[in-house]
Design goal:
Shape: globular
CATH superfamily: RRM (RNA recognition motif) domain
Radius of gyration: 15 Å
Largest sheet: 4 strands, antiparallel
Number of strands: 6
Structural class: alpha+beta
CATH class: Alpha Beta
Strand order of the largest sheet: 1-2-6-3
CATH architecture: 2-Layer Sandwich
């Protein structure tokens, strides 16, 4: 699988920001079928950093309603990627 297809987008929440600052860990939304090994390789290739650990979470879609109509938001996969202590932290908004 292409490394650019594995990583969908960074997840920017309060929890992800705290993990990034305190534990040197990044959070990404990744492809549903990507394994931890593929995620590790993709982050190393795309961002040119060394990865120490990858943890993966499958997130279930939530039930959504609009009046009498009901559906579900899609299921998705989230990966917590811990970088090596000597690596420079990735900044998402460098060009802005």
């Amino acid at each position: 699988m292409n490394p650019y297809d594995v990583i969908r987008r960074p997840v920017i929440t309060e929890k992800a920001t705290v993990l990034k600052e305190e534990e040197h860990t990044l959070c990404f939304e990744v492809h549903r079928r990507a394994t931890a090994t593929e995620i590790r390789r993709a982050v190393e290739v795309v961002f040119k950093v060394k990865v120490v650990d990858v943890r993966v979470v499958n997130t279930r879609g939530k039930r959504k309603r609009l009046g009498r109509f009901e559906g579900y938001s899609p299921d998705w996969k989230k990966a917590y990627v811990k970088l090596a202590p000597d690596q420079k932290m990735i900044e998402y908004f460098e060009g802005v």
